[in-house]
Model the fold of this input.
Amino acid sequence: MTRRCAILVADMLNDFVYGKLGSPSVKKLIPKLKSLIDSARECRIPVIFCNDSHSTSDRELKIWGPHAMKGTEGAEVIKELTPQYGDHVILKNTYSAFHKTKLRKVLDSLYNGKGVEEIILTGIYTDICIKHTVYDAFLDGYDIIVPENGVCSFTLQKHRDALDYMKNNYSIKIEKIDDIIDELNKSKKK
Done:
């Protein structure tokens, strides 16, 4: 990859993986995401965790009930993917990682102020937070890659429908994590 890219990891939090809003498909993402994140760090590609962090007044709680409440263990990144020194953590209280957060400012500051051109968006859920974050990234002019095996939904059908929707409406590239890692490693050797 020759473009200035960043890895975004959405909502890989205790409440979404092991808690009330978890699903078996989420746990299957962990090894793949760990490989991608580790490769990105080795290649000095920025890793940004975009995490729900709710207060009791957030509208989303009316739909999903209390989850990822600010300051709780449920709102922490799972231990398998713990952010490391140099990673960025963005707290959000809506589906999109861009809405009223510092994400744009962080993306613009990277690469010695030249900013990010391409976003590789991973995490959960394809049809909710991923889809809304992709929409805002599309509006802001970022190129977007969504690894089909680096995101998931509550059902396979919702996952597939969301990927198709984003591909058709926001011109995302859909790739596999192993292919992205191969591209990162090739660019590292240059």
Remarks:
- The CA atoms of residues 67 and 92 lie 13 Å apart.
- The chain has a mean pLDDT of 94.
